[in-house]
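Issue: copy button drops trailing tokens. Both records pasted manually instead:
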Amino acid sequence: MKLSASGKLFLGFSFAIVLAVFIGVANYLTFRQQAVESKWLAHSYQVVNRINEVQNHAVEMQTRRRGFRATGDRSFLDDYYVDQQAIMPALVKLKELVSDNPVQVQNADKLITQTNAVVRFWEGLSQNVDKYSKADIARITTEEKEYMDKVRLGVTTMLLEENRLLRERQVANQNALNTANVISIGGTVLVQLIILVLIYFIVKEFRSRKRAEEAVRENLHEVSLLNESANDRNWLLSGVAVVNDNLQGAGDIESLSGKVVQALARYLDVPAAALYVYNDEEQMLKMTGKASLPGDAATGYKIGEGLVGYAGMAKRMVITKNVPRDYWKLQSAAGVSRPGEILCMPLMSNGELNGVLEIANFRSFSPLQKELVDSIANNVANALNAAEARDKVMRLLAQVQEQKIHLQNQQEELRQTNEELTRQAEVLQASEEELRVQEEELRQINAELEEKNEAVEVSRRALANKARELEQTSKYKSEFLANMSHELRTPLNSVLILAKLMSENKGANLTPKQVEYSRIIHKSGTDLLNLINDILDLSKIEAGKIDFHFEEVPVASIVEDIRQTFSVLSEQKEINFVIEKAFTTPDTIVTDKQRVEQVIKNLLSNAFKFTPKGGSVSLSLKAVVGGGDFTSWRHRSRIINK
């Protein structure tokens, strides 16, 4: 049956309406699906950022604890407790974000358990790092690494699962977009064909049909805008993920800066970029990373100097357009050019300036590029801050090593000082004997002068002159000994204090052998100080009186003191030192321990002094049966005491 014109028009309009409804419903379902997929994409990026935040807190806590154990500085603990308070809310938020995925919920529970385990391990450690030995520090570091490896494994598991979901959602989003494009384009082509067929019948309806076409174009434009917005957001989130990936695993500031600058330059598709780190001591911004900069580019700026220094002072993004011709050039084998715009972004962490990021572009920076730079600024600043903290810990360890070498040098100087004091003590003993001879001569002269009555007056004047000379000599001797007392006691007391501090080993940075050496130095210095006190006691020397302190002394203590004093010297000179104690030797003797040890040390010092390398020195202790006459010695000692 042949259709009339109105029937054809009705049939054409009916088909067009059905097709339009079908396209509209299909587009609506496609847009709705795309909106859902975009929401899940944003959710995945949010989960990834939260996982990275948990990982950053855990790594920061580990760094702070290691810094505290290495230096004893409690400011590291303050930063550690800040991260400890932040990590648990971040884990709770992460679990809430993945509540729709049973697998990720299970992974989140494992990560929370692993994090609680390492936190409990840290809390169980002693806060007094002075008590830690090297073995304790090694054991704690090993256990800490095992706990942190489990935490990192949990983080990696969640990241892998979320990245898998992210890829699936991106594919689904792209499929939805392709379906929408096919439906829109195919439907539009069919509608236009129907319009061309029905144009003869719808001349009167031209204006209304035109409005329908405008509505279709507007819908297509809205679809394009939605697709463009989703693509821009995906590009931005991907850029943040790329920069964050390059922030992981970097060691020092230079390598971290180089990786960030190279990755950012590639992703932004800009010709050149540089990163300047702020040095608080020098008040300078120094270049630590660059990409495609010329060799004569400036390597540092003061705050407020140049575009970089101005951005650091203003603490905001600074974009310079219409760069002058005398600014730095970008050069390659193909030619030379100048950037069209310069972007300087300050890197801030907790309100403090950490550095400035400089980016050059031949074209103007798009709003999306600016937003990406602004988004990654805080993450880069935090990474620079963490790298600087690690460098500070390494510098402190180097200072500790230098102090150790300095103390070893002081030990050598102390040994040389001890030898010099020994020589001076021998000179003083010779001077004392000479003075005693002079006093005996004066007594003989006085006796002869008393027998000679004719020359009494002359002799008296001679004796007076001699007495004045002797008084002057005694005065000079007293002044010399007083000065010598000050010069010897002052450095010796300093040496004793330093040796005492080293033997206490409060920093736990000395080996047991070094602590033993420090104790030997302290004891030898104390003995030397007692000897100097006796030598420099002018009143005792002039009166000819030296006190002896007899007491019951264990022979083993004398042997141990001698062994500690000369064991290091025998090792240095490669001399075999042997102490032999006979079985007849009593366990204790009544004597003045200081005097006996002084005599033995003097004899052994001479023995070591004149024994060649590879020789042997021995000290034998045994009881003398029916040998020495101690009665005469006690008699002489009573005379001396009187």
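Record 2 (pasted manually too):
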Amino acid sequence: MSNEWKIPSSWIWTLTGDIAQVVGGGTPSTNNKQNYENGEIPWITPADLSGYSDKLIAHGKRNITKHGLEVSGAKLLPKGSVLLSSRAPIGYVAIAANPLATNQGFKSFIPASGVVSEYLYYYLQRAHSIVLSFSSGTTFPEISGKNCGLIPFPLAPLSEQRRIVAEIEKQFARLDEGIAALKRMEEDLQLYRASVLKAACEGRIVPTEAALARTEGGEYAPASVLLQRILKQRRAQWEREQLARMKALGKRPKDDKWKEKYDEPEEPNTSNLARLPEGWTWATVEQLNDALRPCAYGVLQPGPDVENGVLLIRVGDIGYGKIQRRNLKRISPDIAAAYPRTNLRGGEVLISLVGAIGRTAVVPPDLAGANTARAVGVIPLSKGINPFWVELWFRNPRKIAEMTSLSHEVARKTLNLEDVRVASVGLPPVTEQKRIVAEVERRLRVIEEMEATVAINLARAEELRRSILQRAFAGRLVPQDHSDEPASQLLERIADERWRKEEADMKEKKRRPRRPPRDEKGPGLFREEPKDIRRALLRPGHGLPVEEAFEYGGFSYEPNDDGEFADVDAFFEQLVVLLKQKDVELMRHPDSVSLLSNVPRFPPRRPRTQR
């Protein structure tokens, strides 16, 4: 075993399997109510540790019964056991606050006397990358119990372990106070952003045009005049387009009846709408919409990424009123050409319609020519309407809540574009729109700068946390005390205690009936005792034939349910490990091969003491 980093001379590098018993978990059958109903044994799964930040855990979402414990691979772990999630994902760590069990997604450590549970707990956090390096599998990486026992471990003297834990927790407590303050600031900034947008949409963020006119003795054009001008321009725009189309077809209108085909945009229903500031008016998105470019959905099936293709804006690219450009997809020009209504020209308002309802942004001029995904609605606006004002109106948390309430569930929340088309918009006078947008942008820039500062400090706090753990397990967090018992002696004592315990357990097993208890799965099926070649080599005599070692070790020649001879593979895997460790030798005879232990009686492997 190579040393991972330099440690004090009174410490020693060993393996986790040398200082703790590694225990797996199991899941009782969910088809049997006896396994769960009225269960009193806490049962932990990796999902119980998702987002869990406390050091101790007392229970998960479910309990199991004593019967469920007995008929499954689950084991009752004592208080102080250190739980390590070994898959989906690897690396969640907690300490059992009381006796409990886990499912098979854990490999737990029962520390030997002389190893402080908290010391092991914090070390596994420090050694997260090392733990991951012992995993295997590509789709669903997992770390086996055997590999969990091979994780390098810097064992410190017992008294120093306690001092290290105390210092870690003291520094972490101060750090957590600072992080909590930063988190509160994050929340306050989010609330302030919402209040800025709310005030802007209620006409309270800058003086209204009406108020300025009274103060300064001037006049102003109310938004109702603006709306009427826009509606008039909208109709004129439609009429010009219709005349041009008829002329291209060689037709001339005989009268004005063709003008009756114009669909007046739907007006807002103001009966349930709030009172607007003086000078404002209500309008629908359709009334503010470009007459020749109605609201539209984007590309239904974008296809694969195409180098130098047309940029495609998706829901995930929209946030906080801006388009994030880092991950913009490019699609085939032929596919984009099939959706001309969402061919962007710059100045359109985009709104997300699927999943995260109500994300908005204004298309900047340099993204002209791009297109949008089906889940993004495009709102082209008439001239005279400030698109940034409309975007702010829809970014207001109250408006987002309103639009979300109109959505319906398919696979995800989905908002119909028709609901956007008839949505109400409070419209201020033109100059007031500009002043509101400018003031909101100024305040939001300040908020963004403060949020960036908070994010930097949170990242620094996490880096400091990692630094504390790195210094702790390199022996640089607390001073060494030369009167402490060296870790090498502590490790020898742990090994002796384990050897005596395993020897006593082996003697006890000899007195027990060989037949293990029945499993609930059916008659004739039993829970297996651990299969271990060492169990065979503890028997009297030397030069045990391989066939007998296989049998006495608890291995079976019978295939499993999949027709695989798993025990045969497991036997030879163990044998290879023991041969590499030189714990056994092969003795070859003319007609057979036998195993010979290198010691008169085969004790558990002693911990390595390399420094």
